[in-house]
Specification:
Blueprint: H1 7-19, H2 32-75
């Protein structure tokens, strides 16, 4: 039975694979520019995915803080009016 890799394991494996994309591809290889372009695209995709994921963490944190403030405000008794 195979064990499922964690997100961190997959990230490390992917980053290592992207880093290795140009290994062994010298300036004499006709495919060098295509592989370098593919590596750059892969790096850009990873970078953008990380930025978006981090942005979502900020949004989630702000949402939780706002909801706790709203809950606390609703739990406070309403001020009594003076007679």
């Amino acid at each position: 039975m195979s064990q499922l890799e964690s997100l961190a394991d997959r990230a490390v494996d992917t980053l290592a694979a992207v880093r290795a994309m140009c290994e062994g591809v010298s300036n004499e290889h006709p495919e060098r520019q295509t592989i370098r372009d593919m590596k750059q695209i892969a790096e850009n995709m990873i970078d953008e995915a990380l930025r978006q994921a981090r942005h979502l963490t900020f949004i989630a944190q702000t949402l939780s803080e706002t909801m706790r403030k709203n809950e606390a405000a609703q739990a406070e008794p309403a001020p009594k009016e003076a007679p």
